[in-house]
Design brief:
Low-confidence stretches: 72-78, 196-200
Distance between the termini: 14 Å
Number of domains: 2
Largest sheet: 5 strands, parallel
CATH architecture of the largest domain: 3-Layer(aba) Sandwich
Oligomer: single chain
Strand order of the largest sheet: 2-3-1-4-5
Helix content: 55-70%
Number of strands: 5
Length: 247
């Protein structure tokens, strides 16, 4: 598998993907393997210099054996819940649809499900009931999908990361992927979709976008995988995401 650091990174990713696919929390797997949650967190992040004995314990707790966990085929074929994060214009929908086809799992847009639950267009949910109501629906709908533990690719709203409890819930149950882009990329993609509102309704929209990126980037950086999409086609981005997932 290459250098030791690469081996630890790949191994940690496989353990996390297998754990998420099986619906195990970090604490539950750590308890079953008789190791501390903190140590398991380091292992999943590729930072834990794990012994063969402890690795065998984790493998057993995951219902597999050491050889399968270490082998190239191992759990790379695991299909957990993959959540795409990013601002509007990050490409979550276009990338999500292709990634779902590649992984042969359903693709879901959380905002679409929320609108269906409310029986209103998303803009109407905000204008009639406000952001607090939207955030409650967002958490409710997300919790239902995550509790079902069915493999899928799900695109979440750009502001979900600002709701700490909801973001924590997502990170516990899904592999989170931040589709990072430059301010100009976000802008051009939204305008290309035919949305002229940024320019018509807010003359200082470009500056506001930069401020929004600056506020949210520290939150997006908590994602398990970060993909810089600058200069990449949708197909190239999908390939990068799949590689980041270990597949």
């Amino acid at each position: 598998m290459g250098a030791p650091d690469s081996l630890l990174t790949v191994l940690g990713r496989r353990i996390r993907l297998k754990r998420l696919r099986d619906g195990l929390t970090l604490r539950a797997l750590a308890g079953a393997a008789a190791i501390s949650p903190r140590f398991l967190m380091d292992v999943e992040a590729g930072r834990g210099n794990i012994s063969v004995r402890r690795l065998a314990a984790i493998a057993g707790a995951l219902g597999t054996d050491l050889a399968e966990l270490v082998s190239a085929s191992g759990t790379d074929t695991a299909r957990p819940i993959v959540a795409l994060l990013g601002l509007r214009g990050a490409g979550k929908t276009s990338v999500g649809r292709r990634l779902a086809r590649r992984l042969t799992v359903p693709f879901l847009e959380l905002d679409t499900i929320i609108a269906e639950r409310a029986g209103l267009a998303l803009g109407e949910v905000f204008s009639l009931y406000g952001e607090d109501y939207y955030r409650r629906l967002e958490r409710e709908v997300l919790a239902e999908r995550l509790t079902a533990a069915r493999p899928c690719v799900i695109a979440v709203g750009g502001g979900l990361v600002t709701a700490p409890d909801t973001f924590a819930l997502l990170r516990r149950h899904a592999v989170t992927v931040w589709l990072r882009a430059r301010p100009i990329d976000y802008w051009n993609r939204v305008v290309k979709q035919g949305d002229q509102r940024p320019m018509k309704e807010h003359p200082q929209a470009r500056d506001a976008l930069r401020d929004l990126i600056a506020r949210r980037e520290p939150l997006y950086r908590q994602a398990d995988v970060t993909i810089d999409t600058a200069g990449l086609s949708v197909a190239q981005t999908v390939a990068r995401v799949a590689a980041g997932l270990g597949g």
